[in-house]
Each structure stands twice: as C-alpha cells, then as structure tokens.
Write a structure and sequence with these properties.
Elements: H1 2-24, E1 27-32, H2 37-52, E2 55-60, H3 63-72, E3 81-85, H4 86-94, E4 98-99, E5 126-138, E6 160-163, H5 170-180, H6 189-197, E7 202-206, H7 209-217, E8 223-227, H8 231-235, E9 241-244, E10 250-260, H9 266-276, H10 279-287, H11 302-305, H12 312-317, E11 318-320, H13 323-340
Parallel strand pairs: 1-2, 1-3, 6-7, 10-11
Antiparallel strand pairs: 3-10, 4-10, 5-8, 5-9, 5-10
Helix pairs in contact: 4-13, 5-6
C-alpha cells in the first residue's frame, strides 16, 4: 500500500511539474509580410523555437494594416516584434509604437553593412534585408540601357512599364527619374514632371511583379524598372532579358525589424533579431532567394549571387530614398500622380 501511495504521489508530482513547464512556455508574436512565410518558418522560426523552447505566432499583412493594429493595442501590445519597410517603421516609431533598441544586445550587429545599422535614426530599428531596383530590357529588341534617361528614348515609346507611385517601388522610381534629369528639390518635382511627360509612352503603371512578368512574356514591354528579388521569376518567361545597372545607380529599398513598445517578450525578440542577422540564417535565406543579406560575412555562389542584391558592384550602386522623405512627401506625390497621370 505504501509503495502504491508513493508511486501515485510521484506520478502526481510529475504531472504537476509537466503542467508548470507547459504553463511557463512563452509565445513570441511576430508581425510580418505574407510573402515566403514557409521558407521563413524553415530557416528562422523553427530553428529558433528549438533554441528558445518557446512558441512563435506570425501575423501577416501590409504596412498600413499592421501599423493600425499596433495603434489599436497601444496600451496592451499583442505583437512583440514587427517587420516593416524602413519608412513604415519610421511612421510607427513616430507614433510611439516602437521601443528604442539596445544594439549592444545584438552580437551580430557589427557584421552588418553600415546602411542597415540604425537605418531610421533614433535606434528604433535594424535592417534585415535590402533590394535593388535596376532596369531590365529585351536584348533582342534594343541595343542596351545605360541610363535611367534611356526610358525616355523614342525607340521605347509604347514599350515600357513603370511602377505606380502608390507601390513601394513608386517613390524609388521617382527618385531615379529626378536624379537622372538633374532634380534639386526633395519633392522630386523634376522626376514627377518627366514621368508625366511620357505617360502616354507607358503600357501600364504596374502594381506588382506578376504583372511585369506577364507584360514581358506577352511581348508587350521591352524595358522596365525591376526589383532584384523578382529577377529569377522574370527569367522564367524565356525571353532574352538583361539586367542593367544604370550610370546613376540603382534605387534601393530596405526592410527593417523593431521591438514593439511595452512588449513583455522583448528579451526573446532581441534573441530572434540576433539569430535572424546571423551569417548562417542570412545565408540560408539568400540561398533560397527569399531575402538579400545585410550581413557582410555572407558568401554566395555565382548562381545565387545573380538573383540577390549582393556583391561589391550591386552594393556600391544603391541609392536609398530617405524614409523621412517618403513620409513627408508620400501624400503629395499620390495627389499629384492622381491628377496628372491616373486621370
């Protein structure tokens, strides 16, 4: 009888201990873009869960919707770590939704390109991926493209696509048009005027990469600004396409990470950020063509480097639009666009 009681007591204590351990298991909630989530799970979430003994919940959506959710739960956050464009993160931090980062807690911080360090100011973020926007053209139809000004050439009339200003790449195109044509003001007035002047030469002002692939595949366009992360998809069209880094450089965009103000899991968020920025994780994501690396120690083979924003030539060519400039001018640009181009 005594042995039976001891067995039952031991079993009960084991169950209580197991229950307590389960109750102590923590959950880190991430707000991210919906693209490539299965690959992020493979290379980031699952390996990190094995390390931390925690759970990860991922919520997805666009910049605006996810920032709105942060605002709605300002007093009691339901998100711990948020991934946004650099200008999206600046907007969120301006609203007091993001906590300043202590970069000393990130052992991989020193391995990053300088532009990924404190990219929006105020220590509110760290870059985790970049992308370039260069010019892609049909090599069987035109001799080549060496400048952003070439999009205004007469032989490309009715054969180009440009990004709509409301898209992430819209302000980047506006910047490069302004730069190519000698603009001097931060409202990119020269670039806007130049694009307006050739609006009838544009087959469409595209809103996504799938649309661009279709236009090239159907022989409707011969040249267009293209984000590097879609280059591999464009080549699948089977068309003779070439990538050009124009003389003025390439437009560049960056996505960043930040910890939500008053997050109760900030310690786990720091650990995941550092893991994400490691050479190993950055390499894995680049090899699967998910994200171009910001860790300078990443080394890619030629067949993978071609489809990433990677390497000395690519990095030297990058022209970033200041996130504060996008926030300042975005509504003005959209209003001008709707009046002059979309009408």
């Amino acid at each position: 009888m005594k042995n039976t009681l001891s067995y039952l007591l031991a079993g009960g204590l084991a169950l209580l201990a197991a229950g307590a351990a389960q109750a102590e298991k923590r959950t880190l909630v991430i707000s991210a873009y919906p693209i490539a989530q299965p690959l992020f799970a493979k290379h980031v979430y699952e390996p990190f869960k094995a390390r931390c003994g925690c759970d990860i919940v991922v919520e997805t959506g666009n910049n605006a919707d996810r920032i709105a959710k942060l605002e709605a739960h300002r007093a009691s956050p339901v998100i711990d770590l948020v991934l946004l464009s650099d200008f999206g993160m600046l907007e969120a931090s301006n609203k007091g939704l993001i906590a300043p980062l202590d970069y000393a807690k990130l052992k991989n911080y020193g391995q990053l390109y300088n532009f990924a360090k404190n990219p929006i100011g105020g220590n509110f973020a760290v870059g985790y991926t970049i992308y370039s926007v260069g010019l892609v053209y049909r090599s069987d139809k035109i001799s080549g493209i060496k400048s952003w000004q070439d999009l205004w050439r007469s032989d490309l009339k009715g054969r180009i696509s440009l990004p709509d200003v409301s898209t992430t790449q819209g302000p980047l195109m506006l910047q490069m048009a302004d730069l190519a044509w000698g603009g001097k003001s931060d409202d990119y007035a020269t670039g806007m005027q130049k694009i307006t002047a050739i609006k009838n030469n544009v087959v469409t002002f595209s809103k996504n990469s799938a649309q661009l692939s279709s236009l090239f595949a159907q022989d409707e366009i011969w040249a267009a600004p293209v984000a590097r992360f879609t280059w591999s998809q464009l080549l699948k069209t089977g068309m003779p396409l070439k990538w050009s880094i124009p003389a003025e450089g390439q437009a560049a965009g960056m996505n960043v990470m930040g910890i939500v103000s008053q997050s109760k899991n900030a310690d786990l968020a720091y650990q995941l950020i550092d893991f994400w920025l490691s050479k190993e994780v950055q390499t894995a994501l680049a090899m699967d063509l998910v994200d171009s690396p910001v860790n300078q120690q990443v080394v890619l083979p030629k067949d993978k480097a071609e489809f990433n924003t990677y390497g000395a030539e690519q990095i030297r060519s990058l022209k970033f639009v200041k996130p504060e400039l996008i926030l300042k001018q975005r509504s003005n640009w959209i209003a001008q666009w709707n009046k002059a181009i979309s009408k």
